[in-house]
Amino acid sequence: MISLRTLFLISSVSTFCFSGPLVASDQVPGAPQTKPILIRGATLHPVSRKSIVRGSILFDSGRIVAIGKKVDVPDGAVVIEAEGKHVYPGLIESYTDLGLREISAVDATADHTEFGSKNPNVRSWVAVNPDSELIPVARAGGVLLAHVAPAGPFVQGQSAVMQLDGWTANDMKLLAPAGLCVHWSSMHPSEKDEAKAAEKQDEKWQEFDAWIERAKRYAKREPHAVATDLRLESLQRVINREVPLIVSADRQAAIESAVLYAMKQNLRLIIYGGFDATSCSKLLKQHDVAVIIAGTHRLPLRRDDPYDAAYTLPERLRKAGVRFAIAGEGPGYPDGAANVRNLTYHAACAIAYGLPSDVALRSITLSPAEILGVSDRTGSLEVGKDATIIITDDPWYEPQTNVEQAYIQGRKVDLTSKHTMLSEKYKKKYRQGKTEVEQ
């Protein structure tokens, strides 16, 4: 006779084993490339140079080996006739919590914020869920890489550039760490009492200064003389300028203070947000500080800001000579990870407000690759780079454009998603309903 305890264990194991498909995507990661693949007759958009009309691109073993008007077909190659199509490098989401958050209203599916306010040792890539339903949706929109960053009230943790295909988070990792994320705006508390605000600001500055100084002393310690401190260990790459400090800052005072602090401590710096970046563009340009714009689909920061301030920000930064990339809806948005698929709309909005289309394309491909330190691998169609590319039926900025094929390091990836499966389901449902009515 089976005991109640045994029945309970069987029930628990069954629930664990069979509940997975209900919360995970069914897409199988792409298989490694085994034959050369030639895409022929398409309009190629290398980004790093002018477009090639009716060109060809050849990739093998996951790398681009030839691109141009005429490319020889090697023996055994798979030839894709793509006349009338467009070929682009895979789009890059510059700042997101994709893979760390599934459903914002369900805490159990969100792993984007660690407890506490100072977590430089947090590594975002180890928590990325490769089976997230949101990853195939982003992929279907042409986004093949994402800079995944943790959230938090102060020192948030380390970010990573992830490829959006793979069995495990380790398979997906392209660069880790990519930077240390800090919510710099928390250094500038908004208090009506100016004296109180200044006091809180001084406290934050002293606190952060103390962390940096402790990390510098820790680096000079005698081996085995001091117990290992993971938080101070994680700051070493920042102090040594191996990875940048990526600070969230929108207001002019926060941006300027972040730049001045980075120069004082000799740190590499990237600004995320940057709503007021044009107000301090000379400072940013002087110190070659890049800006990751936190989307164009957002409201003005102040009551008296122009209604289109966010829409025109990319063009204003371009005119000012400040390097920038355009991100979609990042961790600060209620449903940021779910809307990575809208990245092209953010960049296209900037085109409508003055940004040249070639610069807009660069802002979601090569510019983020350069800013995040992966431009030797991706971001443009060049010989020697990863074959991370998309094929579309129309130009990328058109609302009706569909991504027809996608490859990550030469692996053909599945473009079905929960959205496409639901679409097919209800098309079939209403076709059957119509047939039944006609009968």
From TrEMBL:
The keyword Signal applies. Pfam families: Amidohydro_1. It comes from the Bacteria. Keywords: Signal. GO terms for molecular function: hydrolase activity, acting on carbon-nitrogen (but not peptide) bonds. Residues 317-422 form the Amidohydrolase-related domain. The keyword Signal applies. Gene3D superfamilies: Metal-dependent hydrolases (3.20.20.140). This is Imidazolonepropionase. It comes from Novipirellula aureliae.
